[in-house]
Amino acid sequence: MGKKIRMGMVGGGEGAFIGAIHRMAAALDGDIELVAGCFSSSPERGLITGNKLGLSPERVYPSYQQMFLQESKRIASDRVEFIVVVTPNDLHLPVSIAALRAGFHVLSDKPAAATLEGAHELQKEVARTGQLYGLTHTYAAYPLAMQAREMLRRGELGRIRRVSVAYPQGWLALADDSSNSKQASWRTDPARSGESGCFADIGTHAHHLVEFFTGQRITEVCADLQSVVDERALDDDGAALFKLETGGRGTLTASQVCGGEGNNLNISIYGEQGSLFWEQESPNQLQIKRRGHPVAILRAGADCEYLDEKVRARCRTPQGHPEGYIEAFANIYRDFARMIHDRRENLPVDSNNSVGDIEAGVRAMAFVRGALESSRSQSSWVALTPYWE
């Protein structure tokens, strides 16, 4: 690919689980180099992180504003090229907008913003600046998730009739869980998380997976959201019926209070000629069922010729050598690095990859808003199309 893409990070300091995941994923293929960061709201803690990562102290900044200002003054061959945003939700919007305005591309954790209005504001800024913007919807980047998408887009299962997606977790099942970790404390705080808890946090992943697999938009929703744990201010559990734009129907459940569950995201797609099933906790196999045929299980591997070529290109090991969460995350970084490289060379940017775009970010927050409105109005049907504009 040529010279490494230079990355700056906002957030992801000591005690932040996802920051280390991002750094490992970005480094996996050797395309990206972390050169600068503002890792914490505490300059002292930020310097500790920067020192552990081997960064020059002058490129470990006390604020993201100072980082963008100082990095933009560096010569083009040395300055940061893109910013990865790994902060709590309330900072996704201001950090992303500041980075775009300073001339940097942005790769952000989801959601794009804490509210639908914020997502629309960011969408306008992406269009105005012309910078690249991406979201890390990690689960869509697993090779067999991408294989499922290609099969469905070719119509191999016929017209899609029903979708079932579920995302149960158990890490917030008890009242004390809200304060037991840094991640839990901000996710259950409306001032940091935004207008929704569970549905904005993991419901958006389930929503994105439906649209990614099917290639269709969810157009209407009928939802019931609740806070199971007493005195929790945001939803921690919910379920929704939904409609796809070609008439298919589906169910989506997302919950963080299912005691004993880990990260059991799973999805079933039912077509007129067959169905498929994939689950994140066993990501290296995809189950295919066709009427009158035995069940087929596709397995991931760079040497599996029955997989699409673009899917095999995202497998790093032969069949039987499992790949997982870090590798899926790394696929997003590799695809985003390719987009930046194409921009460097004034080539057409191929956005048909694993990187979520700002339009997907807007639709995710439209889904959250629609689910909230539906739940508040006794689970009436809510059209999402007005929220897209």
TrEMBL record:
InterPro entries cross-referenced by the UniProt entry: Gfo/Idh/MocA-like_OxRdtase_N, Gfo/Idh/MocA_oxidoreduct, GFO_IDH_MocA-like_dom, NAD(P)-bd_dom_sf
Provide the Gfo/Idh/MocA-like oxidoreductase N-terminal domain boundaries. Answer: 5-135
Q: Where are the transmembrane segments?
A: none
GFO/IDH/MocA-like oxidoreductase domain: from which residue to which, for each copy?
Answer: 147-276
Q: Which Pfam families match?
A: GFO_IDH_MocA, GFO_IDH_MocA_C3
Q: Which domain of life is it from?
A: Bacteria
GO molecular function terms attached to this record: nucleotide binding
- Quote the protein name from its UniProt record: Gfo/Idh/MocA family oxidoreductase
What is the protein's species of origin?
Microbulbifer okhotskensis
